[in-house]
Structures are given as structure tokens and as C-alpha cells.
User: Fold this.
Amino acid sequence: MRKKWLAVALAVGLSGALVWGMGISASAENRGLDVYKSALQQTKEAKSKTAQAKLELTDNGVKLLTLEGIAKVNHDENVASLDATYTDADGTGTFQAFHEQDQVVFKKGDSDVYRVMETKDWGRKSEKHTQDGPPAFVKQLFPALLGDMNQWTTVTELPDGGKQVTLELSEEEMPAFIKVIAPAVYAKMAEHGEAKPVAEKSLTVKLPNLKEEVQVDAITVQATINKNNLIEKQTAEVHLSGVDASGKKHELLLSIDVSLSDLAATTPDHIDLAGKQVEKISQEDMKARWGKGEGGHRS
Assistant:
């Protein structure tokens, strides 16, 4: 599977959580969404944080892809680091990324090459988005497409004084927009997954070629908030099913688990490029490499 379609898969899995969050500011009064919005805003105010994340994709219980990583971010100093591993159909691989001094440094597996890309414009774009928030039309668009999520959101009081906010959608409750686009999105991902790899060492995710009855059966998004009104953990699950050309039914599960820690006390890892083999690349080069699936490296 080409790397750009891995990115699409990640985006699909995260979309439930992101859409939920973006829709909050435009929603009607609802305790669950208000609780989450308050905790999200307070968590975002932490100047640094560590996120430990895991993504897993299974087909009828068989693992197709596992991706795990630790990201460390310091917003004040505009630095970050990521250390990740993945397991796909061909084995296990690793990669690292560092953002510091208006540049991003990429290192894959046991490669001796450090690819450096300038990012001088990224900070200003990110800052503007943070200050302005989502455009007004986006706030209006999501509720229109996805419907009213308020009725599917609940709050549970925890024994330690914290709270758990949960959004659950069954097949019957699934917004019409998701029902319509799910088959087309999956078909496109499967099509590119079957394409002959351009690079010898690109990620391999063998998605079943579903032909009929492709649908999203359930979506669950959950946030655990501690007694200090900070988000400690977020999880998401997307259940999708369909039937392949042979008539076999497949049940796919995409699960995402993110734990936050060391808020306002995180120091990202630093990379010293002195004496190392460095390759400077542009943003266009990086898009082309990852779009073609190039550069993946097994450890």
C-alpha cells in the first residue's frame, strides 16, 4: 500500500474524533460536548506535552497494520520529535522525525541518511489557524453533513473525580453522509493498495477487495478527563464491513489509542546533524517521494 494511502487510512480513522471536536463549537447546549470542549481548550493551553499513540487495523481479527509512536511537542520553543515503529504484511520498520529551527528532519529505519526540509512558513500558518479557529462555514458545514451528535454523547463521572465523555454511533444512527461516502473511499484505498509498489520497501497493507455491502457499522470516540480538567486519554474505533468477490464477509476494525502525559513538562528529543549524512529536500520533493511510496525503510 502506498504511503499516501496509509495517510488516508489514518485520516479516516481520526476523522471521527476530529469531526466531533470541530462540531463542538457549533453545537447546541449539551453537557457532554460542553465538558469535552472545556477540557480540550485547557489541554491545548499546556505549552508542552507527550503523546503515546497506537493505531491498529484488523480484518476478521487478523492484524493488517500496527503503528505505534511517541510524539513530544513544545509549542513555546516550536520543537517536536517523533519516534515510531510499524508492523505490516512484510515485517517491522521504524522511522523518526524532528522539528526544530524552522526545519523537519526525517530518518527512516537503519538508514544513515537524514532528510532535511525547511518549514519556515509552517509556524505562521499553524499560529493563524490556532488564533482564528475553523472558518465559520466549516462550523456550519459539519453539523449539516453529519447531523446532531449531541444525542449520542454521554458523560460518566469517574471515582477519582474525573470524567469520561463518549460518542457512540451504531449503523442505524450513522449520518447519511458517512453512509454515502464510505464505499467510495474504501474502494479507492483498496485500488491503490493493489497497485504495484513503486518502491521496493514501501508499506504493505493487504486490504480485502470488498465488492458488496460496504458500510460503516459503528463509530466510538471516547475521552478520559482527569480531575484537573485535562484530557489524559482519547480512543476511537471505526467498524467497517463488506463482502468480497468470493462471497466472504469481512469485518474490519480501525482502532486508535492516544495517551497524553507530561503536560507543561515535556522536552522533545534533539537531533545533532554534525558529522551525519544529510540530504536537503523541498516540500515538493517530500510530497513526491511519499506520494510514490519511496523511501520506506525496514529495520
